[in-house]
Specification:
about 290 residues, Rossmann fold, about 50% helix, globular
């Protein structure tokens, strides 16, 4: 545990008035190690051509291997292990091609059933300019909705929002939709919410190629995830996409994840709340790999 700078860590905690016994220290170090070594699993669902590869690269950075590069960076055609420099790894599960044929859809249905329990987060991609979502709706109702109702974080991503009509009005200089496009995007979100019978808050219109609305998507990811999963996933996301609001929430979650099983929520709030909590959050961030703004 020396690589965690544990002595300095606990010395800093004592400066903030948080004194721990040896058993508590060992538990905290175990929590930190678990966060550092945990490999998050994110599922990208949706039809081929929805832009899963471009969104993954936009969120997690240019160092990712291509999803289509099966030979170079996958263990099987569905699982992609993404190495992120020296900072760690994240597992991306790509379920391609629904709607290709009845036989393939049956195969993918079985695949959904097997991998959904393992996933920390599901991002279901839809093409924003597409009109027919019947196949997506069927798969969602039959396979994903039951898990979502049990608490599985699922977000619908309307990708390629820059293709929404009138496409020619897209503001290329500022990477933003025109007033007419924005109105149509909002109508599309309402329409998709009706089709899938979900809240509009679960639907995020983006354009990965234009980097439009990715900050809002990351905000939704942050606030949808439990504490440990939040810290382990968000530490790999492009930091330019993390808002101040999301960063503050991740810091709080890091503190709770590190002290989980050692101190109750009430004690944590009392001992390390407010400015003290922010300071300790910064210390924890440096250890687990999440750096506060």
């Amino acid at each position: 545990m020396e690589n965690l700078n544990s002595r300095n860590f606990f010395e800093q905690l004592e400066k903030f008035g948080t004194k721990l016994n040896q058993s508590q220290k060992e538990r905290i170090l175990a929590n930190i190690q678990e966060i550092k070594t945990y490999i998050p699993k994110v599922g990208l669902f949706g039809k081929t051509g929805a832009g899963k590869s471009s969104l993954a690269n936009a969120l997690f950075g240019e160092k990712l291997c291509e999803i289509s590069d099966i030979e170079a960076c996958t263990r099987n055609p569905q699982e992609v292990i993404l190495g992120l420099g020296e900072n760690g790894r994240i597992t991306l599960l790509d379920v391609p091609g629904i709607g290709e044929s009845r036989e393939r859809d049956e195969e993918y249905g079985a695949l959904y059933q097997s991998i959904l329990p393992e996933l920390d987060l599901v991002l279901w991609l839809l093409k924003a300019d597409e009109r027919a979502y019947a196949t997506d709706q069927e798969f969602y109702q039959n396979f994903v909705k039951p898990h979502m109702e049990k608490g599985k974080p699922v977000l619908f991503v309307l990708n390629q929002a820059d293709k929404i009509a009138p496409e020619k009005e897209w503001d290329n200089d500022n990477h933003l939709p025109s007033i007419n496009q924005q109105r149509n995007i909002e109508n599309k979100v309402s329409s998709v919410a009706g089709v899938f019978n979900i809240s509009t808050s679960k639907i995020i219109p983006v354009s990965a190629s234009e980097r439009y609305n990715l900050v809002d998507l990351v905000d939704k990811i942050v606030f949808a995830l439990p504490d440990k999963q939040k810290v382990t996933i968000v530490k790999y996301i492009d930091k330019t996409l993390i808002s101040e609001r999301a960063a503050a929430d991740v810091n709080k979650s890091a503190v709770k994840a590190v002290f989980g099983g050692v101190m109750t929520g009430a004690v944590i709030g009392f001992e390390i709340g407010g400015p003290v909590g922010a300071g300790i959050g910064g210390i924890i961030g440096g250890i687990v790999g999440w750096f506060s703004r």
